[in-house]
Amino acid sequence: MVQEGIPASINGSGSAKIFTVHSLIPLQNTPGIVSLLAGSPNPDAFPFRSLSVNPIAPDGSDQATLTIEGSELKAALQYGETPGYRPLLDWITGLQEFSHGRKRDDNVWRVSMGSGSQDVIFKTAMTILNRGDSILIESPVYAGILPIFNSLMSEKIEVETDAHGICSASLRNILENWPAGKPKPKALYTVPASAVNDVKARIYSDRIISDDPYYYLYYGKAARPPSYFSLEEQTGEVGRVLRFDSFSKILSGGMRIGCISGPTRFLNVLDQFSEFASIQVPQLTQVIVFKLLDSWGYKAFIEHTNRAAALYRDRRDMFEEAMREHLTGLAEWTPPEAGMFLWFKIILNPKSPSEADSEKAIRTIAFKKGVLALPGTIFLPNGGKTPYARASFSLLSKEQMHVALSRLREAILEARESLQ
Prior knowledge:
Elements: E1 50-53, E2 66-69, H1 70-77, H2 86-100, E3 109-114, H3 117-128, E4 134-139, H4 146-151, E5 155-162, E6 165-166, H5 168-176, E7 188-190, H6 197-201, E8 208-211, H7 228-235, E9 241-246, E10 258-263, H8 264-277, H9 283-296, H10 298-327, E11 331-333, E12 341-346, H11 359-368, E13 374-375, E14 388-392, H12 398-419
Helix pairs in contact: 1-9, 3-8, 10-12, 11-12
């Protein structure tokens, strides 16, 4: 017989945690238990005998077919535990040790899955922030994150960035001059793809929401900078960093698989939010991802990501070549060292290049001429004018790059004329 009963609060004698039926699913694995618990469908009703995928090996060659069948298929098609599919969680935990030097310790930190990293970032914001709380946000910032903070009516405190990431002087100035008696910001949100080491080492003053989808798509000439997740281990002050990884950019965007790595106590609370919001990340996609990653191992996974990074580096180089041909004298930029975007400053007024605003040139004139890019203002946490714009080079052929940038050249020239 099982010695421990179900948690106290489920039968009304405690209130430490709000339980759902789904939160009790792990108890079904207790030896000796006969479960009358959940309304899980009987696997005999599932219309699948097996599922197969034909992956590409990390070196680009064909890989043997991966087949999901038997007990693994039953697990893939069934409800699962809210934190995620355990074999995948274990694999990712090992990846964090392999990539960031974080030793396994479930009492200190662990991993939970999300339907893409955006899913768990949203739930993190809902867990950390109360309505009206202050949060530090790098500027410019990933625009897709702003509606989350806006929905909470957060006070968005902008931290300046440069080509290497957050400016430590800007962050230090904000914190040293914070009004006495005003609650400090709850967290710092940053996408730290190519932030340099000395900047990272100076910002351990707040909980860090480290949104790092391009970590494995780094292609700079220097060694990849260490992550915040790695640095906090080195400082010995663990528990501040919430690391978000995404498999969208390196395996498949349509699978919607991401994860959070962070303090166990925090993730325990986050998982309660997930139970109420979505119950779990689709088990099938988790199993498919695990089958692929497990067949590779960590070294082959890195080989695959290096190959993907090289693809984007080559596309960056092609895009820069087209930029030089069409926009020399009309724009300035710093070559990106990770990811699939290039930021550039439009020079509408050569006498005052930093005072012009890219909004009209990009949103209106360029679109009419047949090219679509994003004006920099939508990436500013609190809006405002900026001469910067952002272009993606991930999907374009070399010919399309030249067509797009020749049209953009015409748009900038027309915008210049309108200012005279």
